[in-house]
Amino acid sequence: MNIATLVILAVLAFWMLGAHKRLKRLRAKTHHSYGPLASHLRQRHAVALALAEAARPLLPGDLQPVAAQLIDAARQASRATDEAQARGMRGNTLQVVGSAEQSLGVLLDRLVGELQDLTSGTGPEPAITELLRQRDALQEQIHISRLVYNREAERYNHALHVFPTTLVALAWRFKEAPLLSGQTALRVKGQPSSPMPLL
């Protein structure tokens, strides 16, 4: 093997090492950007639980199941969020989070609608008013943190498909990060740039 070949192989090895480090760095930034989103989702779960408990005395018997279902949905969403973060969002964990958050959002909207009907003459109680204000504020925070996550995920996904870096991605089995849409609070798009679970 002549010197020129050795030089080419050395350059190739250094380039592959650099490309691998860059993909790891971009993947880590994507993981890190999920943290604030998960934190805001957990706050939303706590608000949903508190709202369900505060609403119970106001709800007639036939609407009590709505509060109970909301409590169950908030707990399931919290578990899904914890699991996604603990597993580094591998497998289908982020899809589970999206499904749980969508169910939670539907039940939360229903409870809010029932409370508005029940309190339309006198206005909601102060505690409920504050919880509703917190819910609205969290929706905006979730929207912002989702945009930050999507920006990092798009940078990472783009790097995966730039030739010849894509060869390194294939060799080390780097996976795409799905983008998140804003329907309800959080929902994984059915088809990101390719149908891969998050990292």
Task: Please describe what this structure looks like.
This protein is mainly alpha-helical. It is 72% helix and 2% strand. The protein has a two-stranded antiparallel ribbon with strand order 1-2. The longest helix is centred in the first third of the chain and has 53 residues, at 3-55. The radius of gyration is 22 Å and the shape is rod-shaped. 31% of the residues are buried.
In short:
By secondary structure, the chain is mostly helical. Helix content is about 70%, strand content about 0%.
Give the topology.
Blueprint: H1 3-55, H2 64-86, H3 93-118, H4 126-160, H5 165-171, E1 180-181, E2 187-188
Antiparallel strand pairs: 1-2
Helix pairs in contact: 1-2, 1-3, 1-4, 2-3
Rg from alpha-carbon coordinates: 22 Å
Beta-strand percentage range: under 5%
Distance between the termini: 39 Å
Principal-axes shape call: rod-shaped
What is the structural class?
mainly alpha
In which range does the helix fraction lie? over 70%
Strand order within the widest beta sheet = 1-2
Q: Quick one: how many beta strands?
A: 2
Order of helices and strands: HHHHHEE
Mean pLDDT: 84
Quaternary class:
single chain
How would a textbook summarize the main sheet? 2 strands, antiparallel
Question: Key features?
Answer:
199 residues, mainly alpha, two-stranded antiparallel ribbon, 5 helices, 2 strands, 72% helix, 2% strand, disordered C terminus
